[in-house]
Specification:
By secondary structure, the chain is of the alpha+beta class. It has a single domain, classed as endopeptidase fold (from Nostoc punctiforme) (Alpha-Beta Complex), CATH 3.90.1720. The chain has 7 helices and 7 strands, in the order E-E-H-E-E-E-E-H-H-H-H-H-H-E. Helix 2 runs antiparallel to helix 5 and helix 4 runs antiparallel to helix 5. The longest helix has 13 residues.
Length: 246
């Protein structure tokens, strides 16, 4: 992942305070801020997704994250395109699911969490902050519109062999099959004129790019032509991608 700033963003690191990230309690400005959630699981499928992103990192270590989702602005309600759990009887949804962030509150199953805030400002000749936020959320709810740009359903399907047999199946990202959740969030953000993964090619869309963008590209977002102030809260309990055993 390309680096865009000389130093990392000043993030709130809850793991150092021995706290846990309560997503709902951190959604402080839903009227003009788009909140993106990142979580990393310890089940075998999540670990495989985290390892798949290792070639995107300079240190070649597994990503902290396997899932990415959008907060709708209504409490902890989220929109997410998951690699695991898509309903095969409803292809018209593109795999986009409506849920609550509380599903990720178990710190044993989901030890890694981060909340990225995209606080919109008004840009010259552009929409007001609330309108920019609304354009993202409206797009995120429109399965038909995103189908014209991305086939999320096919992305989900292309990852399944790797999730079942990661040691016998080529890495989907290396094969240029994007992470559908990351592609979904990136597309929705673009409706407000915001690039969610600066410097990354579409075929390599992954949660890791959003993590890198939040940490290192925050100065780029603050430019007047972009009009976004980034914030980051992180709670990393499993940096080494160890598989949980019951």
């Amino acid at each position: 992942m390309r680096i865009g700033a000389s130093k990392k963003i000043a993030a709130v690191s809850l793991e150092k305070k021995r706290g846990e990230l309560d997503f709902a309690a951190r959604l402080e400005s839903p009227e003009d801020t788009l909140y993106i959630g990142l979580v990393g699981g310890t089940d075998p499928a999540s670990i495989s997704v985290r390892y798949a992103q290792s070639f995107l990192r300079f240190d070649r270590r597994p990503s902290y994250f396997s899932n990415i989702f959008i907060f709708t602005g209504r409490g902890d309600a989220i929109l997410e395109c998951r690699l695991v759990g898509a309903d095969p009887t409803r292809p018209e949804t593109q795999g986009i699911m409506r849920d609550r962030a509380r599903r990720y509150r178990d710190s044993q199953e989901w030890p890694n969490k981060a909340l990225v805030g995209f606080k919109f400002a008004e840009i010259e000749g552009g929409l007001a902050p609330a309108a920019r936020l609304r354009s993202v959320l409206d797009a995120a709810r429109n399965e038909k519109a995103i189908r014209e740009r991305y086939d999320l359903w096919n992305m989900i399907a292309s990852w399944q062999p790797y999730l079942f047999e990661p040691h016998r199946t080529p890495n989907p990202l290396v094969e240029k099959s994007p992470h559908p959740g990351a592609a979904y969030v990136r597309w929705a953000l673009s409706m407000a004129g915001v690039e969610g993964a600066p410097g990354a090619l579409d075929e390599f869309d992954a949660p890791e790019h959003f993590w890198a963008a939040a940490n290192y590209w925050y100065e780029t977002y603050e430019q007047p032509s972009v009009g976004v102030c980034l914030s980051l809260v992180r709670d990393i309990g499993d940096p080494s991608a160890g598989v949980s055993v019951v």
